[in-house]
């Protein structure tokens, strides 16, 4: 059995992180030049399997909106998108656009951090002791010019296959939600698989979605006038550090949650910052998605009893980016 949260030795975070990084390392697994990490598990056969799951044609966008009312509050210079119109209907009516024969149009510009809403973390996003994915020196990968090795554009055609939803909030939580600070262990994940049934099996090449209910609570707070609060940077339920071995052993291609940071906050060590990220991205090569909207999909899965589906989740192809926005689409 994998270690659980209760058995975690909190007295030596540095040692625990180093040990997990060593156990879960995929460095060299796909050769010294690899830039795809766990996406190597998502083969053409896995895409065929995923496509075969489409039966009803029901589709779900798993993206939150990208707008000025979004969840960001400036943590680490992350702000909400700024959307500016450069041509409008008013301009067209007044004939100031300079086009002939009465044609007019609208155009716009958006400025935003690439990880301000629903997004993927790329393999150049997190380093471990100065090293990036596959043992490269961090400074040889990401410079002021961007990620010249594992930029998010390397994944543009690849993230499409069998998606699996584990609705831990509905299975383990109260009224479909987990409280802030709840550490989801491997035992919780396995219990959710058992409760949901065979369509929830998780294995090589799958794209795993974990719903905690945190976004559901944020929406309720907004509706009741309290705003987003700390949704994008505060306490949250999430994956326990002890799930590193489970994530590594399952050989999934990627994982996404409905929270801002994927792992539990506050973290399980007194002194550490995103320790599961530190193991998963630079050592395991695992792609992590954050702030995905899983609520409507979860409701549909609960109603029809099927928790796997075709999922396509290509990031915006920004050259050299270490993360990028995405509008994931699940089709059942």
UniProtKB/TrEMBL annotation:
Keyword Cytoplasm: no
Gene Ontology MF annotations: hydrolase activity
Residue span of region Disordered: 64-95
Enzyme Commission number(s) of this protein: 3.5.-.-
Record has NAD as a keyword: no
Keyword annotations of the record: Hydrolase
Name of this protein: Cyclase family protein
